[in-house]
Design goal:
By secondary structure, the chain is an all-alpha fold. The chain has a domain of 224 residues. Helices cover 69% and strands 2% of the residues. It has 20 helices and five strands. Strands 4-3-5 form a three-stranded antiparallel sheet, with no helix packed on it. A two-stranded antiparallel ribbon has the order 1-2. Strand 3 and strand 4 form a beta hairpin. The chain starts with 8 loop residues before the first helix and ends in a 5-residue tail after the last helix.
């Protein structure tokens, strides 16, 4: 007789909200009249993400394993789920911004039309609005929330595919620069398929070594028998798959192209939410599955962190496209996050884990805000992403330039911003755990990376606008769009959070410290 697995509906409520909203979005797409789809899809997606966020808050303090041990409801998982749901709701608002004016939407009116065709050019000014992106994004957010709660390698793989497949699709839906967008989507899909293959092969090796895919069983086997060759190889392959999603060098080759080619709201969504989800899965795999046998993964993470910081900081200096520059910034920040992973104490207090949780929240909000500003600066061919097009932006829009400066300073780790607090927390955790050489490398690469952030600030404030006359009479330059209510909300929330988490971070750091617990 087969017994039904135990299910905690309360513990599963964040996932039920997201996947329920995604399924409703599919039904709307199939049966609702075209004219009513957009507001309905935006409303359903926001209900799902906000509902998921609120339900994670209501579950605070819960520690249980449900779904026959496949899913964990614990402090770290709930903190990450709340972060993903909150960032997902803000991302949905960015998606909706230009849907209010269909001709200026970031998404192609019909994805099935060949790029560059006569029909494709006609659809550039069409009143049709792409609405399939909302259920796809909601499915991706649900997959991310499942990813960080998975207590089983097989469930983790399923969650990886659920979050990845919608991202492959929506990356190729840019309204302008269609070929670049489709090329980015194809690269993302092919390299993502390889990464998934690595993860699945690693899962098979771990199962062969342990006889189970449950993280608690893996930890028990590691404690009793130590890390064998097969288990270490399996862990390495699992990490390859997860590091790909986290944009960690040397598994980062897809990141600059996809960041540049995808619609900017999608880039913001990936840069914020996918980073949180990937690191949440890495933390759970290492600390729940292999935490008592740190020698198997600590040297590997140590080396990858250094490579990621150096690659992101050095190659970021050479970029002239702002989206590619932010892509290399994300690679460098992935290395900084790994310094927090090194600082984990598996026996009790978790300064590295709490610091990493805080850093993920701060980085996600800052990245989302930076890309929101990017959607507002435009030229005749759409968004102005070349650095030269940002020259003199402060003259055109002082407020927008000031907000972008705040986000860039936060990414650089300047004091009184959330970025400084996050970096200080993860670097201190690494030093306290004896990894001070890693912290030294992180400080040096932070100084290098600060150059390309400050270069944009100098361009905005101290350079003449493109095309301006020598006498200073003409102020030709980038066109600054007037943000609608959705983007205004995103900018207000992210800018306020960047300041508050830099000036008064204590309560959020305490919250992250209280949440820094896994249940196996």
């Amino acid at each position: 007789m087969i017994e039904a697995p135990d299910l905690s509906l309360a513990g599963l409520s964040p996932l039920l909200f997201l996947f329920g909203a995604a399924c409703v979005g599919v039904l709307i797409e199939a049966f609702a009249p075209r004219d009513t789809r957009h507001p309905a899809q935006v409303a359903v997606a926001l209900v799902g993400t906000v509902g998921g966020f609120v339900s994670t808050l209501l579950l605070a303090g819960t520690r249980e394993v449900t779904a026959a041990g496949a899913l964990a409801v614990d402090g770290a998982g709930l903190f990450l789920q709340a972060t993903i749901a909150g960032l997902g709701a803000l991302s949905i608002l960015l998606f909706a911004e230009r849907g209010l004016d269909p001709a200026r939407s970031s998404f192609v009116a019909s994805a099935a039309v060949p790029a560059g065709s006569v029909r494709d050019r006609e659809l550039l000014t069409s009143s049709r609005v792409q609405t399939e992106v909302y259920p796809l994004a909601t499915f991706a957010i649900g997959g991310m929330m499942l990813f960080v709660a998975a207590n089983d390698l097989l469930v983790m793989f399923v969650a990886l595919e659920v979050l990845s497949l919608p991202l492959y699709l929506i990356s190729g839906l840019a309204r302008r620069r269609r070929l670049l967008s489709q090329e980015a989507a194809l690269k993302y899909f092919l390299l993502g398929a390889f990464a998934s293959g690595f993860f699945l092969y690693g899962l098979a090796l771990v199962y062969g070594a342990v006889g189970s895919v449950r993280l608690s069983d893996i930890q028990e086997a590691v404690t009793d028998e130590g890390g064998g060759t097969l288990l270490v190889l399996g862990l390495a392959l699992l990490l390859v798959g997860l590091m790909f999603k986290a944009s960690v060098a040397p598994f980062h080759s897809w990141t600059p192209d996809v960041y540049q080619g995808a619609p900017t709201p999608v880039t913001a969504f990936m840069g914020a939410c996918t980073k949180v989800a990937a690191f949440g899965a890495i933390l759970r795999l290492l600390y729940v599955g292999f935490g008592t046998d740190e020698w198997t993964w600590r040297p590997l993470i140590y080396g990858i962190a250094i490579v990621s910081m150096v690659v992101g900081a050095v190659l970021g200096l050479t970029q002239t496209d702002l989206k590619r520059m932010l892509a290399y910034s994300s690679i460098a920040h992935a290395g900084f996050l790994l310094t927090g992973v090194i600082g984990f104490d598996a026996t009790g207090d978790s300064p590295g884990l709490s610091a990493t949780l805080f850093y993920l929240l701060a980085y996600g909000l800052t990245t989302l805000g930076a890309f929101a500003v990017l959607t507002m600066v435009r030229d005749g061919d759409g968004e102005a992403t070349h650095l030269s097009q940002w020259a003199g932006l402060a003259r055109r829009s002082p407020v927008l330039a000031a907000v972008m400066t705040l986000f860039l300073l936060a990414l650089a780790g300047i004091p009184l911003t959330s970025g400084f607090t996050g970096k200080f927390a993860v670097f201190r955790a690494a030093i306290d755990d004896g990894a001070w050489p890693l912290a030294v490398v992180a400080l040096l690469t932070s100084a290098i990376a600060a150059f390309f952030y400050l270069r944009v600030v100098v361009l905005m404030y101290f350079s003449e606008p493109a095309g301006s006359s020598a006498a200073g009479g003409s102020l030709e330059g980038p066109t600054v769009g007037v943000p609608g209510l959705p983007t205004t909300i995103v900018l207000a929330v992210t800018a306020a959070a960047t300041l508050v988490l830099g000036v008064l971070p204590g309560s959020v750091l305490d919250l992250a410290g209280q949440a820094a617990r896994f249940v196996g």
